[in-house]
Specification:
Elements (H helix, E strand, L loop, with lengths): L5 E5 L4 H13 L3 E7 L6 H8 L3 E5 L4 H8 L4 E4 L6 H14 L4 E3 L13 H16 L2 E7 L1 E2 L8 E2 L4 E2 L8 E5 L1 H10 L9 E5 L2 E4 H12 L4 E2 L1
Parallel strand pairs: 1-2, 1-4, 2-3, 4-5, 5-6, 6-11, 7-10, 9-13
Antiparallel strand pairs: 8-9, 10-12
């Protein structure tokens, strides 16, 4: 099994990225580099990660020299980027990763397991998965459910004490906490089966009605559902 020492995380100060960065730092087994877009800007999360031992590397993803300098000496590249240009950025990182002998690439999946033709945004993920498989680099795909921390987007309004369901309240939905996704990302480097494979982190699989009941039990607040 591969021995990994240095991990570079693209998007390591974002919503999920910060959790993943913290998880690698807490593990204590890796040197952690956080890739941040140029120009340099003040970022509280970046400063916190530096205080915990991370190195911040500023990079222009469109400049090959920047990517070479950022990824040189990296064993594992974790991408937690988002946006419609992510495919192009990841493709550039993949090219450079091969040149500088990165051992494994964990691309920005971190969501449902979509197929090509599902949606313009998820199509980019599916296309890059195929590119990565053909590249010869080791890879691991991380799949998870809806972020539990963002269930408010599913219609839970705590202030108004209301829950509005936009789909059948009896439909089962998989959710995963950000911290669990982060922990499994770290652990994927220690599991032989994750090499050129996938990790699926379900967390919980409940109906919206059951999530509402759990929420009420945890908070002691009763929410009206519509």
């Amino acid at each position: 099994m591969q021995s990994f020492k240095t991990v570079a995380i693209a998007g390591g100060t974002g919503t999920l990225g910060y959790y993943v960065s913290e998880a690698f730092l807490s593990d204590g087994s890796y040197k952690v580099k956080i890739l941040r877009k140029k120009p340099e800007t003040v970022n509280e999360k970046a400063n916190l990660l530096v205080s915990k031992g991370a190195e911040i590397v500023y990079v222009d993803y469109n400049q090959k020299d920047d990517l070479v300098n950022a990824l040189k000496g990296t064993d594992v590249l974790v991408s937690i980027l988002s946006g419609f240009d992510t495919y192009n950025i990841q493709s550039k990182m993949l090219t450079v990763a091969k040149e500088v002998d990165v051992k494994r690439f964990i691309p920005t999946e971190f969501g449902g397991e979509y197929k090509l033709g599902d949606h313009i945004y998820t199509d980019a993920k599916a296309k890059f998965r195929e590119d990565l498989k053909k590249s010869g680099l080791e890879y691991t795909f991380i799949y998870n459910g809806v972020f539990q921390e963002f269930l408010g987007w599913a219609g839970f309004d705590v202030k108004k004490k209301e829950a509005t369901f936009f789909v059948d309240e009896n439909e089962i939905i998989s959710t995963t906490s950000l911290s669990d996704i982060a922990k499994y990302t770290v652990e994927s480097l220690k599991v032989p089966e994750a090499r050129n494979g996938a990790i699926r982190v379900a967390g919980a699989a409940l109906t919206l009605k059951e999530y509402l009941q759990k929420f009420e039990e945890a908070t002691g607040e009763l929410l009206s559902s519509f």
